[in-house]
Structures are given as C-alpha cells and as structure tokens.
Request: fold
Amino acid sequence: MKRLFTSAFLGALLLLVLGELGARVFFAQDISGRFEYGYSPDAGFDVRPDGTVQLFRAGGRRFHPQSFPRHRPPGTFRVFVIGDSVPRGPSFKGAYPYQLGAELKRHHIPAESVNMALAGYGARRCQVVLRKALEFEPSLIILHVNDSNKYEDEREYRRSQEFKSWHPRNWPMKIFIFRRLYEAKVEKVFWRLVPEQIRLKFAANDPDAQLAANPDQDEVKARIELARETTAASAALARARHVPLLIITQCRLMRDGPKSFHFEDQGLDALGRSLAGNGVYWLSMKDVFAGLPDPRPYFSDTGHLKKSGHLLMAQAITQMILQDEQQLGLTALRREKKDGGG
Amino acid sequence: MSFITWQYLLFLPLVLILYWQLPGRWRLVLLLIASYIFYACWDVRFLALVMTTTFVDYVCALSIEGKKTASPLVLVLALLPAAWLTSCSLFLPASHINLIIIGVAAALGLVFFTGHELIWRLAPEKRGRGFLVFSVVFCLSILGFFKYFGFFLDSARTMLEFLGLQTNRVLLNIILPVGISFYTFQSLGYVIDVYRGQSPACASLLTFATFDAFFPQMVAGPIERGRHLIPQLERTTAFAPEHLHDGLRLVLVGFFKKVFVADNCAILANYVFDPQTPLNGYWAVLGVVAFAFQIYGDFSGYTDIARGSAKLLGIDLVINFRFPYFARNPSDFWGRWHISLSTWFRDYLYIPLGGNRGTKWETVRNLAVTMLLAGLWHGANWIFVLWGAYHGTLLILYRVVPALRSLGDEKAPSYLQGVLAVALMWVLTLAGWAIFRSPNLQQLGVWLAALGHWQTSLALPWASSSIWLLIHIVPLILLQFLTWKYQDETNLSRLAWPVRGVIYALMILMIVSSTGHDIEFIYFQF
Reply:
C-alpha cells in the first residue's frame, strides 16, 4: 500500500513546521504582539522583576532600546516622548527626546527623558503607547502630532483585524514565517528594488500605494477627522490621569525655490491651539523654526530634522518647561528631591 | 472562479472529497454541477452559451453517426438555455437580463431545432456533412458575435471613414464570455473528429456536457480532444495515491509559476508597455523579457494547476507546454508552446488546407492562413493579427531560407549550433512578445523607437529592476534545468526526496511571499 503523501511532501511540511516552531520559540519576544500591528497594549514594554521597565523592538515596535525604573524615583522629572519618526530622530542621541534630557539637566533639573517614538505611528497607535506610558508615573508626556501617518495607522489596524478574522483568505498569513516573508517582500527587502514610480502605479499589493492612491476624498477626510478626534481623546486621557501633556504640532518646510521657502502646518496648529489649556500645553514646531533666518539646514527633508534641528526643539521645549515650571510641578519635584534625597 | 482565489482552494478539496466518495455516474453528475458552479462564478448568464454549444454539438455528433435524437428532446435542449436565462432573471437585476436577451436565446434554440429537423430530411450521404457544417457555423457564429463582432464593426467603420464616407456610430457593449474560444474549439474539434471517424459520438449527454465544461480546463485550456478526455470521464477510476502526489505537485508548480514568476514580472511589463512610460533601450528590453516570463509563467502555470486539479480527480489532461524557450526554430516553438492549440490548428485547419503536401507556394499560403487565424484567435485586435502574421513569416522564412533551416535543424549534431539556434529563436520570440503585449501599433512603435535610444537619462534607473526580474525568473530557469531530462516541466522525480522536499518548501515560501497581487490570468481574455 503506497503512502498517501510522498516523503518529499512530508519533508517540505516538516521544514515549514520546524521553521514556524523555531521562529516562535527562538524569537518569542520579537513576535509578542507582532500580529496586533502596533495595537497591542504591551508589545515592546517589558516590566522586569527587578522593578525596571525595558523598551525593546517587538511586535512591530522598533523602540530605541532603553530602560527606566517602573516607579519614578523621587525628585525626578520623568518625560516620555511619544510620536513618529520625527521625534524618534536620526539616532537615539541625535533625537530631541535625548537632547531634552541633557538640556533639562543643564538647567539643574534632575530629568529622565524616554524616547517612545516609533516610525510610522499616527494618532491611533500613539494613543495605545500613551495608555501604557501612563502606567509608569510620568511627570510630563510629550505627544508629537503629525498628520502623515494616518494611512499607516489605518493599514495596520486593518491588518490586525484581518489577522483576527476567521476568513479563509487570511489563514496562510496566520503562520508567522509566511507573514514575515510576505511583509519583507512587499515592504522591505525586495520591494525596494522596484522604483517607487512603478510601485505606486502598478503594484497592487503595496498597501502604502493603495492607500496613498485612494481617490475617495470622503474617506481621506474621515481618516483625518479620526486622527483629530483621537488626539483630542489622548489629551482627555492625560487630563483624566492628571498628567501634564505637551502637544507638539508638526510642520513641513516647503522649498519654493533655491532660496525661498514656507511652512505648512496642515491645520495641526489649529488643533493644538484648540486642545491647549487645563493641563495640556502646546508647542508649534513652525513657531520654533519660523523665527530663524534660514531654517533649511535644520531639516533633512520636509518634515524630518537633523541633529541641529532636534537640539533646537529640545531647547524650545526646555524653555517652555521652565516657563511653566510651577504648573508642571517642577517646584514640587525639587521639594520632593530635597525631602527624599535629604 | 479563478484558480488563484481562496474560493478555489476551498472548492477543489470539497469537490475532491465528494468525488472520491461517490459511485460511478454520480461522479459525473458532481463534476458537471461543480463545473457549472465554477463557470457561473464569473457570470451566471453565460452558462446559457456553454449549454447551447454543448447541446448543439452533442446532437450534431450523434446525427453525424446517424443516430437521431428524438425531436421533442431536441426541442427541450434547444430551449433549455432560454429557460436558464429566464430563471436567472428572477434573481438578477433587469439591467443584466431582459426579455430581448431571453428572446434571442429562444430564437437561437429554435434555429437549432429547425436546422436539426431540416438536415435530417437531407439524403443520408449528405446528412453527416450537413450536421458538421451546421455545428461549425452555429458555434463559430456565437464565438464570432461575442468575440469579433465589435472588432469587425469598428474596423469597417474606420475603413469607411478613411475612404471619406460618413458612418453612424453604433456602440455595442458586448461582454466577452470567459473561456469561449477554448470551449468552442474543444467542442468543434470533437464534432470534426466524429465526422472523420476518429472518435465515436458520445451517447451520454451527461458525459458530453462534462467534457465540454470540465472545470479544470474549461476556461483556459488545455484544449482537449474527445477521444482523450471522454473515455477517462466514462471510466470509474479507483483512487490511487499517485493522483494525490502528481496532482499536488502540478498544482504547486502551477501556483509557483503564476504567483511568484508571472505576477512579479507583470509589474515591470505593465510599466514598460504603458503609454505614459518614458522608455530607453534598457527598459524596452527589460520590459519584453519580463513579459516573456510573465506570459509563460501565467499560461503554463494555469495549465499546471488545471492538470493538477484534473489529476487529483484521476484524470490526465494533455501537456500544453514543453520548455518553449528552448525551441530551435518556429516550428519547434509551436510544438512546445500552447501545444493543444497549435495541434488543433494543425489538425483542423493547416492539414485540411493541404499542409505541406503541395507546392512550396501552397505550403507558404497554408502557413500564412493558419497563423493569421491563430493570431486572431487570441483576440479581436489587429495587433494579434500582426503577431500571427509575424509568426507565420518566421515559419515561412525558416522553411525557405536554407541558412535558417540548417541553423534551426533539431537534429544538428553541434552543441554550439544548438545554442545559437535557441538564442536566435529566443530573440525572435521576444520580438513577437513585444508585438503581442503592445496595446496598439502606436505603442509598438514607441517600443521599437526606444531600442534606438540607450541614454540612461531618458528613463528610470533600470539596474535594480533587473535584479528584481532576475530574482523572479532564476528559480524558474533552475526548475527547467532540473526537469529537462524528462521533458516534463513539473517532473522532479530524478531528484532525491530530501532535495525535492526543500524545493517544495521553497516554492511554498516563494508563493506566499508574492500573494496579494490579484492579477487575473492573461489567457482568460481569449
């Protein structure tokens, strides 16, 4: 009696099963929250038994690896910066969250500034990070608001829902090695070989292209509105927990010619202004750079900053903190430090 | 329903489970229902056309053998497609089916019934030929209307306007029923075989309807012959593990060719042959190479999935592709590319025209006619006619020019000559694909002009895209080398099982990495 399946078929199956098991056993931490696509409340946060919290790259969250005590040390001004690739910066030390810590220390404020920014994160996923960050006793949360990641937020949300779905078309993608390979192909390694113009026009399986090319203006408007509502909800969330929130609104540097330029805020400044007050502060990135005779050397592209631009941002935030020292509780902190530290 | 949908991946196992549980003729009932469901997933209305072709050819084939189908039964069969449309109209909106469509179907049925009754009144010695002509005219008229009417109308209007005559614009929005060229040719081939005495007429309507609509190969081939497929349908085969082994292997290779090779090559080919694209020589070459692998992966991949699906049912379909890009001459190419169509044209057109039995001029004429019609078979567009003419010219040149004839000789002893012949044929095939892929003559001109401009500033950087192309065609070329020995593109049996296991696993990973393109099979439009 011949076997139903050939040795080769079973061998192939075994290889795939071993690959999947290997991935799940040896990369368990990396996989945690992987299929929630940024909507996992805990991915990337590891609360250790020794009382420290470690930030690591997992579940699609490419945090800069950092650690901090679970409970804020007495007298420490703890700042968490949440946002997208702009605050995440060109490098850990080159980004304004790190430089903010240094600036605050320069002003004799015992500060601890943690960079929780993640590339491609829009308002919805930033709120997920914010909810988790609120558990770790922050003195101030900086929420860097941008409008360019709403597509990614929606795409990743759709994926997270697809992954949970019972629909047969999603079954193969529940296998980790399949999903990773697919994503590597269409978003990372191989995909870069095809020029962007071709991907945008002809590549039907490029999710970014699909969303960016979406001509449905109603849907686009709805998405922007959702981002605004989510930011407002995030502000309300911080208020409810009595944690000061500083909203930084992103701007774009538009180069009109060899020497001329202008800034665009895409209506974000109006959003920041409308949310400010009652524990919520607002800083416009446009205001930080508009006063400079030539801000172009501070920008690496229309939105991202060079290290010098991040330093300017850190200085502007520091000034703002110093101005509102009392409301932000710095005076109380100094007292706390004095009492705690003797 | 397309092979590359999750619906098919559920549909096929369900059919298989039921099929192997059922006894004898119930399997045919299942296959027919499954085939009609498979086809109805595209457009339920066009099942009426499938039924019409089936009933006409079933009755005509029997009549050719002198077996008269009872007139009431013929009338019922003739009106069944109209009845089907009527029942569809209960569920579909009025814009999809209206009384005119139902009326046309009923009128066609009456033409069929009347024709049948009239031909039976002919003298017995004329009756067979009468039914053959009736079947050919009837089926080709349906094909001609749905596929070519708009094209010829448009061409006639253009010609009249060119001559300065005023025409009234008549806009016809005729939807091309998927697979119509395939099942019409398969059915016609069967009737001709019966007329020639090469195949017995199928007495069972159930068997013949299943033959005509057999879902694995109905919409894009391979075009089967009655004498090959009908006996297999009639035989009750016991399940054997080989069915599963061979079927799964074929399906896997087919998906690999379609999803990994063809769909990824399509991205570059679509870009190059888009009218908005700025081209230089590098991109022109890259685009046509990409298309060569796209169409090969697409069509041969479809055939492999079709053969695999049939094999899982214990049925063998004919091989449709055999390393076509290793052909040494045009005749060799057509013996390797879409074999079931080229042999169809050979047996039912080229040979009846006289083949190569007459003078050199007559052979040239026969080749030209056959290839022009083969080109037109691919679609109602002058570009396909030009493509057919191009291949016809190649066939003629290789026949009349001694140097080419000698170079392309398949029995040439020299290895170098073989390599040169394959290389030349490959280049000529690529030029043919440039014609085939161009949406119109103007775009073909753009592609040809680009070959004269090699400045890199004229277009996007091409180097990284050529790496993309290589990543997707090298695995296919390696597969071809591994299977060359058996002259069967899917046969990996000379490899040790662990190696085959690794190849299967890699294929699965490659397929998964490329899912989501949702690019339809090219040959569905034919």
Q: What stands out?
A: The radius of gyration of chain B is 24 Å. Residues 124-162 of chain B form the longest helix (39 residues). Chain B touches chain A through 41 residues (CB under 8 Å). The mean pLDDT of chain B is 89.
